[in-house]
Specification:
The complex is a heterodimer. By secondary structure, chain A is of the alpha/beta class. Helices cover 37% and strands 21% of the residues of chain A. Chain A has 4 helices and 5 strands. In chain A, β1, α1 (14-26) and β2 (30-34) form a beta-alpha-beta unit. The longest helix of chain A is centred in the N-terminal third of the chain and has 13 residues, at 14-26. The relative contact order of chain A is 0.18. By secondary structure, chain B is of the alpha+beta class. Chain B has 5 domains: 3-159, PAS domain (Beta-Lactamase), CATH 3.30.450.20; 178-284, Beta-Lactamase, CATH 3.30.450; 290-410, 2-Layer Sandwich (Beta-Lactamase); 417-537, 2-Layer Sandwich (Beta-Lactamase); 574-735, 2-Layer Sandwich (Heat Shock Protein 90), CATH 3.30.565.10. Helices cover 38% and strands 29% of the residues of chain B. Chain B has 21 helices and 28 strands. In chain B, the strands form 6 sheets. Chain B has a 6-stranded antiparallel sheet with strand order 18-17-16-21-20-19. In chain B, strands 2-1-5-4-3 form a 5-stranded antiparallel sheet. A 5-stranded antiparallel sheet of chain B has the order 7-6-10-9-8, sandwiched between helices. In chain B, a hairpin with a 4-residue loop joins β1 (52-56) and β2 (61-64). Classes of the chains: A alpha/beta, B alpha+beta. Chain A binds chain B through residues 12-20, 22-23, 35, 58, 60-61, 86-88, 103-108, and chain B through 553, 556-558, 560-561, 563-569, 571-572, 638, 642, 645, 705-706, 709-711, 713-714, 741-743.
Chain lengths: 120, 743
Amino acid sequence: MRERETVLVVEDEALILFTISDELRHAGYHVHEAQDADEALRLLASDDPVGLLFTDIDMPGSMDGLGLAHMVRDRWPLVRIIVTSGKAVPDPAALPEGSRFLAKPYTSGAVVEAVRGMLA
Amino acid sequence: MSNNLSFLAGGGDVGRLIASYEWGGTALGPIDSWPEARRTAIAMVLRAPVPVALLLGPDGVMIYNDGYAGIALGRGRHPACLGASVLTAWPEVAAFNAEVLRVVLAGGTLSFRNHELGLMRDGAEEKVWFNLDYSPLPDARGEIVGVLVLVTEISERARFERAIVEDRARLRQMFEQAPSFMALLSGPEHVFELTNTAYRQLIGHRDVLGLRVREGLPELAGQGFFELLDRVYASGEPYVGRGVKVLLQATPDSPAEARTLDFVYQPVRDGGGGVTGIFVQGVDISDRIAAEHARAASEHQFRTFAQTMPNHVWVAGLDGGQTWVNDRMHDYAGMTPGALCGFGWRGTIHPDDLAETDVRWKESVATGAPYEREDRRRRHDGAWRWHLSRAVLIHDCDGLPRCWIGTSTDIDDQKLVEQALRDSELRLRLSQEAAGIASFEVDVATGDVMGSERLWALWGLPQATRVPLAVFERLVLPEDRLAPWSETGPRDGTAAKNVEYRIRRGDTGEERWIARHVEYLRDAAGRPVKMFGVMRDVTDAKQSEIRQQTLTHELAHRIKNILATVSAIASQTLRDTDLATARAAFDTRLQALARGHDILNASRWTTASLGGVVEAGLGPFPGERITINGPDLAIGPRRALTLALAVNELGTNALKYGALGDNGGHVSVAWWREDTADGPRLVWRWAEAGGPAVSAPERRGFGRFLLERVLAADFGGSVRIAFAPGGVECILTAPWPPTQWED
């Protein structure tokens, strides 16, 4: 591993958020956790540059995960994006360019693998 | 009056006037000097009962009797003309009288017939006719000395003759104008004396007067008429011919035409009883015969036609009684011919129908209105079958009612089919009503829509027999407008068979879902003629379908989230432990999750009561050693699940190591609101007491992960766990109220 990449995990369900985060940390990543888009944007604006955004689509709050993903694509074009949802698979055209979709439920291994693939 | 005037005695008024007249100044001289012959003549004249006058001397001095005075008075001349010259007394006819004097004084006579004169009679003038005779009056020596004028009144005879002339003219006119033909033939050769208009018409207006019959009507030769005339003339016996056929020519060149005549040859006799001619009189009945034949033919035709018809056909008189019925009617009733005539047919009508049939038939007979009636009629085998009877009043060519012609048709089978059809239609309608199905048809040519009652109700339109398609199309929601049919759909037959679309009801404007199914009826060329269809309001089904879809999506989502949660729990549980321990722990955690689900299912995943979640979460643990206390608080599904898992972790830990274990102890779960400087807070506290002494474990397992991180995060607050000697204490502090998000 070249350096410790920072992954921002956004997921409203704390149990899942922390489980994923723990797995990613275990895999060697630096992880930020957010339960909604507002918190995620705050973390993105901090000094620690985020290499990858892993966000759930279905979240309460002013913006859902898809909105967040698009905003990140616009404002931080270098950030890799993985979008996940338990609902129907979204239209690929609705996803930000270069992003990837991971359907719920996923295993921790699958998440780590997807993140690793995007950051390779 | 002296003796020498005795010749005037008995001479009437004029006699007395003569006696007193001054004759000295006249050409006759004084009366005493009158010769005897003149006196005798005057005496005779005065006594004559008819008007007589004497014109005496070359000047014609007038002496006359009372009879003539009447005539002269009629002209205003009497008595002025007495003793005057006839030439001055009648100046307007002086030349005539001068001629009379010249001729008669020379010994001639003159006579004039039918001379019309006015005469005073009974104080009034009357037209009278006279014959005038002038003859010479001689004296004693035979010399002509005057004129004797005899005036004979012939008025009565003149009047009689005039009447005869007029009668003759009238007879002539009647003769001419008589509708029957007439001719008078005279002599043994039968010469035409007279013919009337009808006769001339009969013989084609040929001029036959003065001709013998054999010359005038040569085409009769060989037809026996000449011989008949000869026989009548010879025998004096009249001949009457009826319906005699004769061939006559309209003109000499035209072909002979057959006519039928009724006629009489009547011998005409003179005063002595001898036959002098034959009067021919008769009527041309050809047209009447032709009409009778035509009627008979038409009657025959009608009956032939009526006999071949499968229906009952009958003829009735103006009184309503039947005069003729066809054989079918007898066969049907099994009755002998004639038995149905008059009102015999009434016996075949069903007793229940007879009264009404009588009323209807009488009404038609009385008013002449067409008759129509359905009633049951008895067949020969006793079966009652429904018949439709119709009759119309027939008029002759003069517009006078003649008879009724009627038919009765067996409609029993039809009636049954109709009833069956009605029943099935009713059934269909009822089932459609019950199923909420509307039926309709569209006439492709006109684009008109006809539909069942339900159709109008479905669309919220007023009931109508037919309305243009556009009325319906207008109510379809714009975004669904192309669903029912393409622009040309209803016309070219390309409308989709099964579609669903939304409409806005005509009356309430309410949005409804309509499901429509159509089929086309096509002509031989395959062109659509009619579109038949059914419609159903599927709004409720549609809404529940939408709900169902939402629910299915929701369920799918929830299941995936549950699996994600389970996956996370598994991932955490399996971390750094042996499989047997992990299996047991995983099992209890899944059960805790399931209990949380039970509570949420009960509330349809809206909210759950915090107390309820705690109670359910602690269900597997010894309840008598647990007290639960706190206000009624609603929390969202995610917090409820997390809390259920958290309570399970705390309970499991207490059972294994703490106050719920074998060594005794007690757990108190309580929550309350606490107002702080930062606002109201929820404080939730798990406190163990009376159990064995506990200490913090060496490693942070799933329990602590769940409590310190997950529970805290989900409630947006913080969790503190204390391992006090009396037992574990876990305190959650979170913002109040605990439900901020809908989730």
